[in-house]
Amino acid sequence: AVDREWWKEAVVYQIYPRSFNDSDGDGIGDLQGITERVEYLDDLGVDVVWLCPVYGSPMADNGYDISDYRSIHPEFGSIEDWEELLAELHAHDIRLVMDLVVNHTSDEHEWFQQSRRREAGYENYYYWRDGDVNENGDPVPPNNWGSFMGGSAWSYDEVREQWYLHIFDEKQPDLNWRTPEVREAVADLVNWWLDKGIDGFRIDAIHFISKPEGLPDATGDREPTGVELYGHGPRIHEYLRELHERTFANYDAMTVAEMADTTVEMADDYLGESGDGLDMIFHFEHMYMDNGPRGRWDPERWGDWELTELKEIMRRWQADLTDDGWNAQYLGNHDQPRIVSRFGDDDEFHRESATLLATFLLTSRGTPFIYQGEEIGMTNAEWPTIDDLDDPMTIGAIEDLIEAGEIEGYDEVREFVEYMTRDNARTPMQWDDSENAGFTDGEPWLPLNGNYPAINVEKARAQQGSIRQYYRRLIDLRAAEDALVYGDFELLAPDHDQLFAYTRTGTEGTFLIVLNWSAEPAVFEGASVDTTPESIVTSNYEESPRDPAGATLRPYEAVVYRL
Ligand code: TEU
């Protein structure tokens, strides 16, 4: 049997602070801006806020490059503002989960400054290596690994006169977890925040912390080069278990680890007491469905995915995770395209498909993570020139393609970028139809999506049957129905290529969820449902079929039945 836990029953809302709400008119969202909107979050019905990084940072990667783990970046406010936000959230029974970024620091962190000067105790805080020289006598990096932000994963440091490893930006040097003092320092900062009363951490890119002995060259063609060698490396379980024992084990805190390339079999070794003590994992299997053969930034293939594949991925995770594990359910976040543009239809069936996605997220087994703006159906935006983009990962990928001679300029990949760029998720939150959508009185740091007069919170709150209202209804339903949280999941009609249908069975009954995940009508067949539904609990259309067997569902029709 599965243990009951508050974080299994919770609905999480992810906030990208830069883009949520600006209280002081500098064009950048901030902590006071979030505090002003706690009522909004309460009204939506969410239980936990996951706050993306707000720490001291030179902002080379919007805060995922941390120079001071124990401070708040002035653009976001002060530590007092943070205390006030925490108190306000807790006063509304909303918990706060912070972002833990410890695969790397900023190069402006004092640890890196001390390490580059070889100060005693800090020599091995990072991966330092001498380089090689090629046949022309030019210096070349110690191995062939590539960076997620384009180019080599190594940069030369003039101070230390050695190369350092950075699998992300050159301003994000990788911490060397082989050094015991690094692991201790990380545990200290985790406890420092937990002692301040936070309710857990989302742990960034943590599958990358154990690099293989000798840092060998990679031979595969996955991008970035080397990712298969340093992902889920040799000592990962040792490091995570140790961190857990030193920190989380002593608190009532939830953890969700971002770990691309995790399979459900691997998850068992990470999750729960039988694993490393982690509570949940963000796996990436559904994020890869529409990627090219070389990975996400391969413009050779993008955008198409099969519903049958999504169903099989979800079935695997929902059904095969053992009792010691728990799923983290998400369709989007600050690194991914907008979910209605990627998995739904952001045009003709905008409302229908956005509510279908909500139905899936909130009725499947695992803790649902809603990314800001999903609840009003925010869409991908337009990025006419490379200069309009902000995301270093997208820009790095385009530069790599140009450098490799695969493309001559941005125009050749514009359509691909407009689908895939992380900037899509980062355009400011659309609160109302006033100038800058009520996000700021100043000049927004990233342009708003032009559709904000039509898609915004104020409109959604007023409108009967809006996406926003539907989210609220589903969140309430989940809170009221044990079977939707703890119930078993069974996939029906696995081969149906338009319908995603499943049951959730708990001790007090069974729900049947039928989703027509397509823009065409679909007939519900190929599944034997023994019981005729007792009632329709919720639907995103009026007058959905009372008995789904053999019935036709309209485009993106989503119905929750009680059997
Ligand atoms: O993202 C991590 C990340 O990009 C990889 O883990 C992932 O393997 C890849 O996207 C799969 O295609 C996190 C943050 O969410 C992101 O915003 C940061 O830029 C990054 O870490 C560096 O901190």
Structure description:
The structure is a single chain. The longest helix is centred in the first third of the chain and has 16 residues, at 180-195. This protein is an alpha/beta fold and 563 residues long. The chain folds into three domains: 12-103 and 180-383 and 456-470, Glycosidases (TIM Barrel, Alpha-Beta Barrel); 110-165, Oligo-1,6-glucosidase, Domain 2 (Oligo-1,6-glucosidase, domain 2), CATH 3.90.400.10; 487-562, Golgi alpha-mannosidase II (Immunoglobulin-like). The protein has 16 helices and 22 strands. The strands form six sheets. The protein has an eight-stranded parallel β-sheet with strand order 13-12-11-5-2-1-15-14, covered by helices on one side. The protein has helices at residues 31-36, 38-44, 79-91, 110-116, 180-195, 227-230, 236-246, 264-270, 307-320, 339-342, 350-363, 392-403, 414-420, 457-462, 467-480, 482-486, and strands spanning 12-15, 48-51, 55-56, 68-72, 95-100, 128-129, 132-133, 139-140, 154-157, 162-165, 200-203, 254-258, 280-282, 328-329, 367-371, 488-492, 499-506, 509-516, 522-523, 535-539, 552-553, 558-562. The structure holds 1-O-alpha-D-glucopyranosyl-D-fructose (TEU). 1-O-alpha-D-glucopyranosyl-D-fructose (TEU) is lined by residues 61, 64, 101, 148, 168, 204-205, 258, 260, 284, 296, 334-335. 1-O-alpha-D-glucopyranosyl-D-fructose (TEU) binds at residues 61, 64, 101, 148, 168, 204-205, 258, 260, 284, 296, 334-335. One of its GO terms (molecular function) is alpha-amylase activity. This is Glycosidase. Residues 14-426 form the Glycosyl hydrolase family 13 catalytic domain. Belongs to the glycosyl hydrolase 13 family.
